[in-house]
Design goal:
Four copies of one chain form a homotetramer. Chain A is of the alpha/beta class and 418 residues long. Chain A folds into three domains: 146 residues, Rossmann fold (3-Layer(aba) Sandwich), CATH 3.40.50.620; 186 residues, Alpha-Beta Complex (Argininosuccinate synthetase, chain A, domain 2); 41 residues, no CATH class. Chain A contains 13 helices and 14 strands. The first copy, chain A, is globular. Chain A starts with a strand and ends in an 8-residue tail after the last helix. At the A-D interface, helix 12 of A face helix 12 of D.
Chain lengths: 418, 418, 418, 418
């Protein structure tokens, strides 16, 4: 293991470009740049070359799009994972994947350190570092941006002084992260939560107000909880997401504007776009409504919130995530079938669903059978179901306390529960 | 108490009209009809007269709209109650209110029985009967429709034979229930879950495809968790709902098409419209994101699902509902502020929020203060936060088991968790 | 399939003996008696013969002790399942097993019906019937005791009139059910919850007040969550239970006296004895404390309560149970190691534990390593951890509301939260 | 506010004695020592004098025993709070109380800082600091032990060099913290989790093996969830705890030996003694079993674990704790009645319970009433309750998948769920 080699997660942007030089000059590392393709849509060959020009001793690009789709996105989709009920853990999900590739490349090159460009204010430092430590506790972790905390002006000055190319185009006013599963946008004017997000905050979705297309139906087929066909055409998970990003984005669907609780103790205002993710979760939930029995459905709903929080909090490579996945996978065996999504301007909803494993069936022979005895059965059920409430009311009344419900209801204006 | 007087929840429709006569003829009751105004929009004076014409000895109309809004809807709004994540417990909520008025009228008239027109297949029988038994366990409960189980044709024949007026207009193919908080529609073609709901299934909302209006902003002000002003104009809770039903409905927003798990053990396909309810819950949640701290936010989210299920399951008049409300009310003290909703065709989202109790504040003096020490604090936090995962990885590795993460990652294609 | 053959779960007692004859005479069934050995300690060969003497056309005994231990008890042990925090689901667990054997025998003999001797007041009817319906929805289920509801005197009269042997010994004043995992006792004087249970209510345990033995240590070894050795001697799960029933019972440990909520809506007072079950759960939990990380530990604790309730409620043969087991099995991979239990009169506790997968290790090299940076790390952690509470306090103060914590604390006697 | 005055939580021990001098010499503070009486049993007047001798400018003793009992312990008792199912949050509970008195004294004296003697390895630093920041975010917090991290030898040398009295008696090998609610003991030989705790680790309880007394009954009366009488004699909460500490400790009851997950990411081995706490929780739970309906009971059980974790994690002065207390208080209205505890050597259990609000009553008139219709009601209930499982089994069978339960059961040895 070479203690003075550091594999740096490299995006091609200003901060990680400065980091290549800074880590070398300040800490003496030979830097290997690593760019991981998670569907962000950048020209990664250009990114690879740029790292070398700046001074990396080596530069690696990994196409992890299918791995990301099959082994990360498929799981959060089966979990219907939405942090705080809204955010489909877009950036949260790519960080452990990137961390695992940092470790792989470090092992392949015998490096003793890995580095990342996360700041000290966000969640991503947690996700990358906890993942690296779970996978390779012996590696040193460098966090130059957090450690050195240069302002943007200082970064530019440093870049110019060291001959690092600075983008000549106007810098975005936002901090953006994007991948196959969605796009995150923060900072700038968005820091005022009362301000409506301006149009230039969006890139994955059209302005819904400009959509003139008529509504469009898309049928998504699921096999064991993951998409396997779109409108009858077989697809990989990655292809399904790309297809629905395109359709949904074209209808201006998939925007999220929210205040969220970061793990590091502060609230932030985030604008996300995730047309494919939200469409797929909508369809997946709808199919589950049809094929999961009530007990499983209700329990899984509670587990889903935990799952999303766990992923958001950077705990991907942990025993709990594996145990939750074991639960989820067991529930997905029968999540097979079709859901028809209807897209309109800024909207997407399920308008039909069917499955060989449907637990709803109007023509089910026994359904009519139940009808014949439903009268007695239902009456008996209601009697037993309501017995605790009735006994409670009777005993409270007998005990005379303030809880006597009948007196309360009879009273003038006074009511049961006050 | 007069054992042979029965107060019947009366809607004016065929079934409860037949029930008036049937309960009298078969069981010897004198019937007092009770129609409760929960915002369903019917001509209740006409309903009142009709009951008398059919043979009720007395007929009562109660305007419970404000009671419904203030004492029932306000609670489920504070709870963001959506059964199975989707259904704003529209009918579930009116049933205990109606039951409480059945009991009040029974007490006022000294009646020994109350009656309702629910079938044996649905949830409403549970909600009405459990509520009556909690409030007045001594009353007899009559459920003529469940007991006698006439088909629609038989009901019509019975009605004609007894001179009961039958609506001359074509009967709706659907079974509909509506109130201030929304509208439920089932049966007919909707029983095929693959079928897109036809346009005539909707009444509270325009077809989103026909909306040509430009997007519209509405600012909702909340005071301790309930709406207190719309666009700056003070409103009651009921007025807020009416206003947002109108705006939202006009944009075709608020439709829900779902498969749901009934308490009585079967799945059903339901189409709901709840523009005001969904708009208010959207706004309320958004404001909570701003003013509730993370721990309270996450705990309350779990409680909300329980609350919705409890209400759906007919357990309104129970000690658990009161205890959950005590929790919720405590959290709502600071849920005060403004949310700007933006309506488009078929859509509504929050585009801005502000509050004196905001826990997000870009200009918060101490925020910058944190910045000064964030580097160390964050690094320390990440170290402690990730320690269990790291220790676990180290120990697993030392113990040699299959769980060795590093070997797995290094392998060709093999990965951490397989 | 022979519609007029019924396989009856037969215990040899008065009720099911009467049921053999009654089902034949009243409903025309040929009865096949089935006695399942779940470790209840009865002479099942005698039970088998008795059924034939009374009139069964066939009589079968199945030794299901190891199946019960390996496939049922092992699961609830891994789940630390205690209904309402106290009851190790003793009877709840044998019912689905018995139901599965009813179905197997019915299939083997081509019978069209199965029967059981449960009353209409208890939980067991639910457990047996839901299990049969999940396994073989086509079978008719007979519940003669619930249907006919003979009093004990009537049963005796019926028995005498039909030449059915009645036990000559005095009948127990209690209703008892026992198996490998424990013993349940109810009725008689126990129906007064204020009454201390008399000594004759117990059979698996000595009176703790009469125990004069000195404390005794027993080391239980677990492999993937199930006991594999006692004091170094390899054991099957069934043998481990038998051994600890003996040791624990000899110390008067394992008695439970509780008021419990039945699924059918009423409370009952139950006296249980489960020395082996409680000792194994104590040991298993203690080992989990050592080898499960905090997140998994806390999540699993919540799941355990659900698991126990699900089993108690008769939902063994359901998809949710399988999914919960998938979660649990994943967590048990590293639940391997030794726990030393110390037994005293009426007590048992863990006094030592060790494991190759221990996440606690005083000599762990990195532990000292953490020490070197703990100062900064801990300080940073505390800063971040407490930030939401601090921001909340600051904002509440600034907003001036009643929540101002400082003023409250300063006040005369008034405090923060009132 | 005087920035150079610091109120230090002072115990009289070596570490905080050294801290008085060190904070003065190193940071220039005038120190006001504060000793809070939470029932630890020390001579606090001597502690007060000692602080002055060492150099504190002022020294204050506050008797907070009743405040601790009424406003802290009563709450965790109503919550049956046991962290990780075992630990009655003994030290966790006194820390926010002590923090509130630090703030009060700081305000009274106009001090600008408060200090504590917690190390960087434990939970107490979190509890004290988060509480202070919630109550008085403007105060500086000094943590000299964490900051300076002297070894014990260094502390002694420092003490001798500065004329600080060092206890002449042999120092305990353990780190101990005790109060009214219990006693915590760690370090020394206990750091080996396999080692049985030696006898000198205990102080609140006799060795159970040496107890020769016959079993003893004690009747605890509760009023709205808190103890109000012992054997018929009215008591305050503090008196009830003292009385049961004495009885329980005399029987050797109340010892806990556990591995626990600290908030700061490590596991520790802890030995606790809490005879009064565990006896009161046993009694309180037992009474709740009698008076809480099932839904409330089951929901509260889940909340209790959250409550204990929240208190353990130092989040006492937070909105979530207040909201949870609102829930709990609502449930305690009817937790009134008597529980008979039976103490034996090393054990304590409830052997009888009664209440005017009991939901169990063998003589309840309606109970017999239910009997008359139980047959039908129970049969109907079971039908409805089992319907989801049955429909699921039928549909799985029809869909042919691997889940066909009937084929599986029929197979040779193969079973339903494999």
């Amino acid at each position: 293991m070479t203690a003075d080699v550091c594999v740096l997660a490299y995006s091609g942007g200003l901060d990680t470009s400065v980091a290549i030089r800074w880590l070398h000059e300040t800490k003496g590392y030979d830097i290997i740049a690593l760019a991981v393709d998670v569907g962000q849509g950048d020209d990664l060959e250009a990114v690879r070359s740029k790292a070398l020009r700046i001074g990396a001793v080596d530069s690696v690009v990994v196409d992890a799009r299918d791995e990301f789709a099959e082994r990360y996105i498929a799981r959060v989709l089966k979990a219907n994972a939405l942090y705080e009920g809204k955010y489909p853990v877009v950036s949260s999900l790519s960080r452990p994947l990137i961390a695992s590739h940092l470790v792989r490349v470090a092992r392949a090159f015998g490096a003793g350190a890995v580095g990342h460009g996360c700041t000290g204010k966000g969640n991503d430092q947690v996700r990358v570092e906890v993942s690296v430590r779970a996978l390779a506790p012996d590696l040193t972790i460098e966090a130059p941006i957090r450690e050195h905390a240069m302002s943007r002006t200082e970064s530019q000055a440093y870049a110019e002084a060291h001959g690092i190319p600075v983008p000549t185009t106007t810098l975005s006013p936002y901090s953006v992260d994007q991948n196959l599963w969605g796009r995150a946008c923060e900072c700038g004017v968005l820091e005022d939560p009362w301000q409506t997000p301006p149009k230039d905050a969006y890139a994955y979705t059209r302005d819904p107000g400009s959509v003139l297309d008529p509504p469009r139906d898309v049928v998504v087929t699921f096999t064991e909880g993951v998409p396997s066909a779109i409108d009858g055409r077989p697809v990989t998970v990655a292809e399904a997401i790309v297809a629905l990003n395109e359709v949904g984005g074209g209808f201006g669907f998939g925007r999220i504007d929210m205040i969220e609780n970061r793990l590091v103790g502060i609230k932030s205002r985030e604008v996300y776009e995730a047309p494919g993710a939200l469409a797929l979760i909508t369809a997946h939930r709808d199919l589950e409504d049809l094929v999961l029995d009530r007990h499983t459905h209700h329990y899984k709903a509670r587990l889903e919130a935990e799952y999303a929080t766990l992923v958001y909090n950077g705990l991907w490579f942990t025993p709990l995530r594996r145990a939750l996945d074991a639960f989820i996978d067991e529930t997905q065996r029968q999540v097979c079938g079709d859901v028809r999504l209807t897209f309109g301007p800024g909207s997407c909803h399920a308008s039909g669903r069917r499955s060989a494993f449907s637990l709803y069936d109007e023509s089910l022979a026994t359904y009519t059978g139940y009808d014949t005895f439903r009268h007695d059965a239902a009456e008996g059920f209601v009697k037993i179901w309501g017995m605790p409430a009735e006994v409670w009311a009777q005993k409270s009344r007998a005990a005379g306390g303030a809880a006597d419900p009948v007196l309360a209801v009879e009273g003038s204006g006074a009511t049961w529960d006050e």
